[in-house]
C-alpha cells in the first residue's frame, strides 16, 4: 500500500470510505480465520476456551472485559489485539487524537484542512501507536481519562476557555481510531466509571461540561479480577451492562500447557551448556498446580503463572552457580535447586490462617515435595526400586549436599544398588553427561522420599523410613538448644 503524503494524494490513492476500528478488527480477523492463521500467537492453553470467546466478541464488534485471577495472560491478550489492526493508517500529521484526514474531529485539524485543502500533510501510524493502555487506580481522575481545559494553552493563545483549541485530551480521545485498554477496572472510582458510559453506548465524549462532543471511534477492552468486585472495588452495574462480552480466563488446564508457557516466558537461554530435563520442568510446574489446590493457600487470590516462571529461572541460576564453583561445563538443574528457589515461591501466594501458622517457607517446601512425588509417579511409577529402598532399610545412609559436584553425587549413588540402572527412564543412561546423571539420581531419591518410602533429613541425608521420626526429633532438639543458647547470650 502506497503512503500518500498529502490529503490530495490520499483522495486519489484511497478513495474508499473509512471503516470503524471495530469493523477493521473484524475484517482482519476474518482474513486470519480464512487463512487458518493463529489468532493470538504465543497465547498457550486457551485454544478451546478463551480464544473462541474473544473471536466471537471481535466478530460481533463488541467492547469486552477479561475476568480472571492474576497471572492469566489478560494483559498479553489485550496487547495482542493490535495484530488485528491494519499495518498502517493515515492521519492528519501532528494530530493529538489521530484524526482521519477525511473526517477530522478536533478543531485544529478542521482549521488546518480548511486553510490548506489538498496540501494538508498526511502521516501514517502503525498498530502499536494505536494502542493506549491505562492501569486503573483510585487516584485516576476524569481529566486523565476524558480530558480537561488547559488554561495555560488558553492564555498563550489568547483564547476563550470555551474554545475547543484549549482542550487537553485525555487517554480515551488519544486512543481515537485505536484500542483503549483499562486494566483492573474495579479499582477505578465509581464516578470515573460513569464517565465511560457515553463512549460505550453513544460513542462520544464530552470534555469539562463545555458543548464539545467528540464522536471518537475506539474499541474498548477491560480486565478485572473477579474477587476485586468486593475486595478493593466493583464495576458499577450500568457500566457492566454496556460491555458487550465478558470473557473468563483461567490457569493452564494441564501440566503440558503450563510447561509450554513457562518454557516460552522464563529466561533460561543463558548458559551454553545448559540442559533442563523435562522432569525438572514438570516438577516446577506441578508446584504451581499443587499450590492452586492447597487449602492453606488463598484460592481467591490465585497463584500466578509467574510462580513457575520465577522458580525455574531461580533454579537454573542456582545450578549455574554450582557449575561455576565445581568447574563443570554442563549446567543441569536438580530437585535441590528447586528447593533453593524458595525465595521466588513464598511471595507468589497468599496464605489462609492455617498456612500462616505453618509459615510460607514450610508451605512451599511441602508443595515441592508433593510435586516431586507426582512427577516421580509419572516417570518411575512402574520401575522396580525395591533394592534401592532395601539399601536404606538395612541401615544404609547417603548424604548429598546441595552444592555437591556431579562426580561427588555419582560416587555416593554408586553405593546404592541398581539406582543408576533406573536413570535410563529419565533420559540419563550410562555414558550421558555426569551432571545429568547426578540430577536424575537425586530425583530418584527425592521421589522415594516424597512417597515416604525412604527418609530424609533437612541437610539432605537419606536414611531408612523408620529413622525419619528420629531425625525429626533430633532436629527439634537441636533447634531448642540453639534457641536456649541465643537466650543465654
The portion of residues assigned to helices is 40-55%
Overall pLDDT: 89
What name is given to the CATH topology of the largest domain?
Rossmann fold
- Radius of gyration, rounded? 30 Å
Q: Which structural class fits the helix and strand makeup?
A: alpha/beta
The CATH superfamily of the largest domain is identified as P-loop containing nucleotide triphosphate hydrolases
Number of helices: 22
Strand order of the largest sheet: 4-7-10-1-11
Q: Indicate the low-confidence ranges by residue numbers.
A: none
Going by CATH, the architecture of the largest domain would be 3-Layer(aba) Sandwich
User: What is the CATH top level name of the largest domain?
Assistant: Alpha Beta
Count of beta strands: 14
- Domain module count: 2
Q: Report the β-strand fraction as a percent range.
A: 5-15%
The N- to C-terminal Cα distance equals 80 Å
Query: How does the overall form come out from the CA principal axes?
Result: elongated
Task: Specify the biggest β-sheet.
Answer: 5 strands, parallel
